[in-house]
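ping. complex inputs:
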Amino acid sequence: MNDPIRIGIIGYGNLGRGVELSVAQNEDMRLCGVFTRRAPESLAILTPDVPVYHIDRLEEMTGDFDVMILCGGSATDLPLQTPRYAALYNVVDSFDTHAKIPAHFDAVDGAAKKGGKVAVISVGWDPGLFSINRLYGNAILPCGEDYTFWGKGVSQGHSDAIRRIEGVETAKQYTVPVQEAIESVRRGEAPALTTREKHKRECFVVAKEGADKERIREQIVTMPNYFADYDTTVHFIDRETFDKEHGGMAHGGFVIRSGRTGKNSETGHVIEYSLRLGSNPEFTASVLVAYARAAYKLSKEGQSGCKTAFDIAPAYLSPKSGVQLRKELL
Amino acid sequence: MNDPIRIGIIGYGNLGRGVELSVAQNEDMRLCGVFTRRAPESLAILTPDVPVYHIDRLEEMTGDFDVMILCGGSATDLPLQTPRYAALYNVVDSFDTHAKIPAHFDAVDGAAKKGGKVAVISVGWDPGLFSINRLYGNAILPCGEDYTFWGKGVSQGHSDAIRRIEGVETAKQYTVPVQEAIESVRRGEAPALTTREKHKRECFVVAKEGADKERIREQIVTMPNYFADYDTTVHFIDRETFDKEHGGMAHGGFVIRSGRTGKNSETGHVIEYSLRLGSNPEFTASVLVAYARAAYKLSKEGQSGCKTAFDIAPAYLSPKSGVQLRKELL
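pong. complex structure:
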């Protein structure tokens, strides 16, 4: 048995805790430290005997870890942290602001190449597993249409947008795929779908005492970009119900490629990839951990620079050898 | 625009015709020849102006093709052809006898390395896309169960087994997944399923005149390995109905990974990959063609030897650049 892969976690929120749990499921890895911006002694982590360090100590511990898994947010943490730490460690992140991925890639690639490290960015399920399935679907059925549906699950960005409205105490927004649309796509009908026809938005809002609920509702459903283009339902509930029923982190979604082959495009095919996730952060963490193994193996081969899920052969994610994989899973 | 990838087809049955159709859908490729064991002049192919050669001419045309796609059968053609031609050309095959893949890999790897060529074996949907999904599912959710369901679709091997029974004129056998089993797996119940609980077998048989149908039925349903462990239904039909209703080549199936995360395995997740294929050979051909592109790119990079779908990063399958892929599909 080889030495286990020494994993570090940077940032200990829901995602960091998920990574901690996932590493414990993988025998070829060991969690060797958690890094935080908080006072380290204030942090109680789940795994006994694993040290917690202040994030400032990262510069001096480069010999003690094989891969750092970055568990901060895409808005402000990762754009700074991933390039910074990619110069020092092999790193993996779940950067998920789709429009900013090209710029993030370039920044991280430069840093990782300078440091001779491997950086894997934007892994998770979307971007990540959904992206891979879009790519395979497009490459195999070049004449066809892509469909991505999300949910049912909480959208953090939309929940935040509601919470910024005056009179709102707290809120959760669920993105719900429209079942009729999915069924039509599955039947190979390749429908042209508007935004409204693909997803519905369902909002659970706790209003502050005395707030004008009708005004809040109106502000939500007419909000540009976030809600105006969707059929949006707003439910006002009390704090107790909110805390009891809306703490879950389930999510999921579907990537469907509908394509045609044949001399006259007479043959239809449908490829569907779907996820039903009990916990969005725990599943995303499990994807990060599998790609941490890939980063380690690629680095051992002497590679460096930034990679996405597109650039990494499936075998790198597995602890098994090529011989085992061909025998057991091919 | 780069020069198109020059593709050759070896073997012109259903699969070879599927490859021909698929190459026509891909702008970065051109079909440059079809090789056959038959008399070349007896073969009418679909694409105008593409030459048909006798298979014996392969030895002398190594400069004229970038990738050969082998479209023979796994029983007797590919075990000989793939190692032989992997020494001369970059090749792709759909070898699908799961138990013999390790030996096939070794034979092809030796030949391809000697010739400095890239050989991609066992691509299609199972082995192939289903294998990749088993691997990703296992790597991401190490604590879990795998489920593969096939169908509804024709099993060539089972149809052949029925046709060997005395008194049978012709027959088609459909493998049908048991819907209740799939639903239980989808709900995350991780059931332990017997062979009988996963698939049913449905047979459509044309009996010769005067044959004892009850004896044929009995011989089918009690046949070891093929039918004895399944709930099997046998329908006797006339030749006209057979020809009209059972010429289709639709197929499909499901790969499901059901796994758990959390401190006490309290969180369930289900990853499902499914295919609904209008034509098994046309879809398999489309997968072969995407991997032909990968073989070409890997060879251009100076790689050689045998690869499976496990060893090839998704980006190699696409005609798009890394920059385009990150922008459009990530």
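The mean pLDDT of chain B is 97.
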